[in-house]
Predict the 3D structure of the following.
Amino acid sequence: MRLMDFKMERENLVEIGETVKITEGVLPSSWYYVVEPAVAMSANFSFRERLKAREGVVKEIKQTPRGFYVVVEFEE
């Protein structure tokens, strides 16, 4: 099991317990992930931190002064 945070700009775009699909983006020296359809975005990750799963379950939605964060659980 792996938990991963995704930054979400607006609330109510996903719900706790919802299964979400993830796409991978490539930068010159790192990778990032997007909850589709472009609902939330992850931080950048190095090669050894790459995500293997492409589907996960929303476990938590956090509201912080910096915005909303979606915590997604993956089985890896």
